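Most newcomers find our protein records easier to grasp once they have seen one. To make this concrete, we reproduce a full record directly below:

===
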Amino acid sequence: MSTIIEINHLKKSFGDNEVLKDIQTTVNKGEVLTIIGSSGSGKSTLLRCINLLEKPTSGEILYNGENVLQKGYNLSTYRTKLGMVFQSFNLFNNLNVLENCTTGQITVLKRHPEEAKKIALENLDKVGLKEFQSAKPSQLSGGQKQRVAIARALSMNPDVMLFDEPTSALDPETVGEVLKTMKDLAQTGLTMVIVTHEMDFARDVSDRVIFMDKGVIAEEGAPEDIFVHPKEERTKAFLSRILEP
């Protein structure tokens, strides 16, 4: 696998609070990388630094070998290469489902409206919501809204999809439909970085798992290594809290 994103000595502080401490890792093309850990461990902050919703305090983020934090780098182009799916959907409530999936294509990528519509419908079909193209977000369940958000991100043809706890705001009965959509995407070879509390999902879908604790990567490896044979005591403690009823 070739590396698409490389993170070197990344740090992020909010005032005196150092949230990320010397993070080093990579994201490889076609890989599903899952980040797990307790609330406050720095998982979402790392994701938000990767797509520069948060500006790192120091360190490097290399995209295809180029440091995106260097002066003069074209950040707007970089951001179009990363699809982001948030906890809270972030759909435009005044637009219908189809318009939510075409607006970014037309305004940011300058696609012709007909081309944008064709791409949007293909992606709505992938997530099982093509027949809801004329619905407003207010008419959808939480799970449906999140699947629209996934279709919208896919419609921008990103190189990497970032998911920030995409099921945490959902009712238990709609979590499964979103996880199934993400599993289906993983099988297409899409590069995905997923922050999640869904341990069974992480174990099933990941090529590699990162366990974060107090702003550092405490352990990383294949799902089998992390979930079945963890080496670090803090990984074992976390998993015993999460996995045992």
Summary: The chain has a mean pLDDT of 94. Residues 31 and 191 are 5 Å apart (CA to CA). The chain is about 35% helix and 25% strand.
